[in-house]
Structure formats: C-alpha cells, structure tokens
C-alpha cells in the first residue's frame, strides 16, 4: 500500500489527548464577583449528602453531558444549575488550561464574572452553601504545598518476562503536588486549589 494514500485518512483529523474516549470529562467555572468595591472569588461547599467529597470546597461544575455543545456550555449550565442564577448574569467567560488527571479525568476550566446583583438560590441537593474570598488574599498569600507519592504495584500475573529487567524493572514513581489555601475556617485544596493557583499565576 502507498504510504501517502494511507496517511490521507489523517489529513482532516484533529489531535486530542491519547485515550480521551476513556476519560470522564468535566467542566468547571472559577467565578469572580465584585463585593464592596473589591473582586472576590466565589466558592461552593458541597452538600453533605453527596457520596463523593461531601462538605468539600469547590467551584461550580460537573460532568459534560451529551447535550452540551461545548465544554464552556457545560461549565455555564452547571454554574446556573448549582447557584440558581440566570445565564444573563454571567459574562466574560474565558478558558483556562485544561487538566488531565492521573485518575482518568479531563477537566476543562473557565473563569467568568457573575453580576454583583445576582441572587443565589443554591441547589440544595448539590450545594450546602456559598461564600467568597477577596482575590487579594490569593494574590498576597501563596498556598502551602505538600507532595503525594504514588506507588506502582503491578497485578499478580503481570508478565515480567516480557519486559527488559523483569521484576527488577526500574519503574518511574509518580509524584503530585497538593496545594492548600487556608482562609479563616475554610480549607481550599485539591483540584480547586490547583485551578485557582493556575489562575493566580496568569493574572500575576
């Protein structure tokens, strides 16, 4: 077969994350809102009734559904649903970097502005409460950083005989930094802190 003809199939292909079909895809929005003449970042406290991460602090967001035309549309939909606001009360939505997590998830993150006159009616099944933190706090205070080390444990029937080095193969251990922002009695960490730090680094 002519290799040129073989590659014809790839000419209109758009590259993506390898294995992206197997990843859970989510979208989140980092909301900014003006309060008392100062820019604040808005956060949610997850409902204590949720099975995953109850009571933790996060940004509005969730799984991208089939009806969402774009990742941004998903972030907007989730924000409206969770905060109980109107789409017209969201503006200047811009993309941040997306994150491919080691746990099989791609997270598309955005930043946007919520109208300062918006009234919040949080969806109680997902959101326990909302609060804001002055953006200046994050600009003045770096997060506390801690490192997580991942151990590699191949399953019992792993075919060591098929790889160079066998059972003595020199696996590359993976490490991940976790950031913690502590504001009054609130602890902001995990994905939320990672996206927040990314945003702070951009605007700095």
From TrEMBL:
Entry-linked Gene3D superfamilies: Nucleoside Triphosphate Pyrophosphohydrolase
Alphabetical list of Pfam families matching this protein: NUDIX
Superkingdom: Bacteria
Entries under SUPFAM superfamilies matching the protein: Nudix
Xref: InterPro entries: CoAse, NUDIX_hydrolase-like_dom_sf, NUDIX_hydrolase_dom
Cofactor: Mn(2+); Mg(2+)
Nudix hydrolase domain location: 23-156
Sorted UniProt keywords: Hydrolase, Magnesium, Manganese, Metal-binding
Key word Manganese present: yes
Gene Ontology terms for molecular function: coenzyme A diphosphatase activity; metal ion binding
PANTHER family cross-referenced by the UniProt entry: MITOCHONDRIAL COENZYME A DIPHOSPHATASE NUDT8, NUDIX HYDROLASE
Protein name according to UniProt: Coenzyme A pyrophosphatase
Provenance organism: Planococcus donghaensis
């Amino acid at each position: 077969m002519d290799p040129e003809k073989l590659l014809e199939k790839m000419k209109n292909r758009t590259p993506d994350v390898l294995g992206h079909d197997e990843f859970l895809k989510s979208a989140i929005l980092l909301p900014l809102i003006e309060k008392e003449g100062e820019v604040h970042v808005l956060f949610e406290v997850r409902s204590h009734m949720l099975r995953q991460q109850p009571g933790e602090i996060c940004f509005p967001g969730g799984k991208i559904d089939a009806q969402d035309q774009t990742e941004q549309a998903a972030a907007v939909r989730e924000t409206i649903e969770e905060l109980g606001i109107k789409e017209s009360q969201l503006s200047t939505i811009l993309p941040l970097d997306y994150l491919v997590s080691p746990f099989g998830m791609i997270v598309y993150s955005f930043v946007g502005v919520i109208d300062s006159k918006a009234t919040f009616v949080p969806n109680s099944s997902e959101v326990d409460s909302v609060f804001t933190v002055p953006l200046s706090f994050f600009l003045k205070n770096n997060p506390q950083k801690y490192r997580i080390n991942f151990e590699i444990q191949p399953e019992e029937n792993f075919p060591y005989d098929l790889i160079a080095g066998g059972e003595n193969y020199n696996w590359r251990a993976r490490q991940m930094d976790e950031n913690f922002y502590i504001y009054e009695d609130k602890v902001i960490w995990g994905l939320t802190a990672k996206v927040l730090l990314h945003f702070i680094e951009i605007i700095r």
